[in-house]
Amino acid sequence: MLLKKSEKNIALFIDGPNMLRKEFGFGLNDIVKKAKKYGRIVVGKVFLNQYAPEKLIEAVANNGLEPVIALGEKDDVDVDVALAVHAMEVAFDPKIEIVIIATRDADFMPLIQKLKEKGKYTVLIAGKDALGTSLKKAADKVELLK
Predict the structure, then answer these.
(1) CA 66, CA 79: separation in Å to the nearest integer?
(2) Containing H/E element for 124?
(3) Model pTM score
(4) In contact, 101 and 122? CB cutoff 8 Å
(5) Rounded to whole angstroms, how far apart are CA atoms 42 and 17?
(6) CATH homologous superfamily of 8-145
(7) pLDDT band at 125 (very low <50, low <70, confident <90, very high)
(8) In what order do the strands lie in the sheet with 141-145?
(9) Nearest in space to 125 (alpha carbons), one of 109, 101, 105
(10) What percent of the chain has pLDDT over 70?
């Protein structure tokens, strides 16, 4: 496949525990499809906890994304720090122009602000019914899933 000269390089980070839930009515494919509207995914990671089902991990890999498994104590497994660390790595990568974060967690607001400070165009992908105003206003663009 030939790349369009205008196609942007994207880093996509998905907060699995907050986004990949059956009750939301959308899934991994929907998030990837929205992200691809912005260009070519060159870094794609889905952050999951150690209790993620094997089928979900397989689906992540089948979508060409990297599963990142966060480990922790029984009730204290959080993917937020792992996602933030990986996102900050791409903040300093001049080849990445757009950073897309799929989450509904307002804890990522400072991360989005820092990415913008570093010159990255930020896109937030979230569920229509599960998104706070502060997070919505932090990103350059918001894509809502129904």
Answers:
(1) 14
(2) strand 121-127
(3) 0.91
(4) yes
(5) 22
(6) 5'-nuclease (3.40.50.1010)
(7) very high
(8) 66-70, 39-49, 8-15, 98-102, 121-127, 141-145
(9) 101
(10) 90
**Maximal C-alpha separation, the chain:** 47
16 phi and psi angles, rounded to 5 deg: -55, -55
**What percent of the chain stands above pLDDT 90?**
69
Please give the structure tokens belonging to residue 2. 């030939």
Amino acid (one-letter) located at 115:
L
Residue spans of the domains in the chain: they are 8-145
**Mean per-residue pLDDT, 98-127:** 94
Asked if 20 contacts 14 with a C-beta cutoff of 8 angstroms, the reply is: yes
pLDDT at 6 over 80: no
The angle formed by the CA atoms of residues 45, 47 and 49, to the nearest 5 degrees, is 150
Backbone angles phi, psi at 89, to 5 degrees: -60, -45
Residues 26-34 have a mean pLDDT of 94
